[in-house]
Specification:
The structure is a single chain. By secondary structure, this protein is mainly beta. The chain folds into three domains: 121 residues, no CATH class; 122 residues, Immunoglobulin-like (Sandwich); 86 residues, Immunoglobulin-like. Helix content is 1%, strand content 35%. A hairpin with a 2-residue loop joins strand 11 and strand 12. The two termini are 27 Å apart. 24% of the residues are buried.
Length: 338
């Protein structure tokens, strides 16, 4: 687990459920830092060596099925007999004025509380001080409704602007009058006030496509928690940022690799036809021939696909496998390091 080119020294990892069907030793922590904390998680394998050595997961469950209803069909709610039920930890982040809600004796482990999806605190991307090759497009990660107020939390801060003129708010299909728009929390939140009481489940927004964050990247709607039928094509975007619930078709994916011997890095170049939006270009997995996961790499986006860089300084000569998950499809390639 890496944070750009360096480690996130304050990673807290609670209430996560993992079920692996084929990959062995898939859950790994490669670089341990003093601020790491793992507990109240459930996995159907053994915990990785680093987690054991640092006396983590005192309340977790290993070699235990999480008890998903039908994971292969994408149903990750848990059964009434699951070891994950009422076995988690209540999360409390006073700095974000957020406390996890739950039913029963304690929160369930996993992405659902009963049949309701667990809503975590607002996600915020903070670049590593050592630099990172990923840049976060500002996107709406949480939205809350109270009376005539709509509060939007963003993953990256927006710059100061006259948002009352550049946003529209809807109640279902009906446009409502926007009275005020106030940027809060150093640009990570936007408070909107309209002329009527809003309903969270049917509220939506429409925004101009050239609204930008402090980092110069445009506000986008993919991954948002609120309906945002907003984005017209923006000619300033190098890659279109349109998201669809229907996964796009892929004609061809090519994976080429070479070893940069002076740096002990494996360089993997992926090209695709057609060239899909960056949100569909997945993380690279690097495994042994026996399917033991070793490392992974985030994409560095190119005009035709992506480039991935993997540290192989600890690898011996032999057979390995590359895996790429792109738009819901898994691509594999066997390689030899000699």
């Amino acid at each position: 687990m890496k944070y750009g080119e360096s480690s996130n020294h304050q990673m807290k990892h609670f209430n996560n459920a993992y079920q692996f069907f084929e990959t062995k030793n898939a859950f790994r922590v490669t670089e341990w830092q003093p601020g790491y904390e793992f507990d109240y998680d459930c996995i159907n394998q053994e915990w990785s060596t680093n987690i054991r050595l640092h006396n983590q997961e005192k309340n977790g469950h290993e070699n235990t099925l999480p008890g998903f209803q039908d994971p292969k069909a994408g149903d990750f709610t848990i059964t009434s007999r699951s070891a994950s039920m009422d076995a988690g930890k209540q999360m409390n982040l006073p700095e974000l004025s957020w406390k996890q809600a739950f039913e029963g004796k304690a929160p369930d482990i996993g992405a659902f509380e009963g049949i309701k999806r667990v809503e975590g605190p607002p996600f915020r991307f903070i670049p590593s001080p050592d630099g990172a090759y990923y840049e976060e497009y500002p996107r709406i990660t949480r939205h809350y409704v109270q009376g005539p107020f709509l509060l939007l939390y963003l993953s990256a801060p927006l710059k100061n602007d006259s948002y009352i003129k550049r946003l529209k708010v809807f109640e279902g299909s009906n446009l409502v009058s926007l009275q005020s728009a106030t940027l809060l929390d150093q640009g990570y939140a936007l408070l909107l006030e309209v002329n009527q009481v809003l309903t969270k489940d049917i509220v939506g927004i429409l925004f101009e496509p050239d609204i930008k964050g402090i980092n110069g990247l445009p506000l986008i709607s993919w991954g948002s928690t609120i309906a945002a039928p907003a984005l017209r094509e923006n000619p300033e975007l190098k890659f279109k940022d349109l998201w669809s619930e229907t996964l796009p078709a892929i004609n061809e994916v090519k994976v080429e690799h070479y070893v940069d011997s002076p740096t002990n890095k494996l360089i993997v170049k992926m090209t695709m036809d057609p060239v899909l939006p960056i949100i569909y270009r997945g993380i690279l997995g690097f495994s042994t021939e026996q399917d033991v996961y070793l490392d992974g790499a985030y994409p560095e986006y190119t005009d035709t696909g992506a480039i991935y860089t993997v540290d192989i300084s600890q690898c011996t000569k032999g057979n390995y496998e590359l895996t790429l998950l792109i738009a819901g499809q898994l691509f594999k390639k066997k390689i030899v390091l000699d």
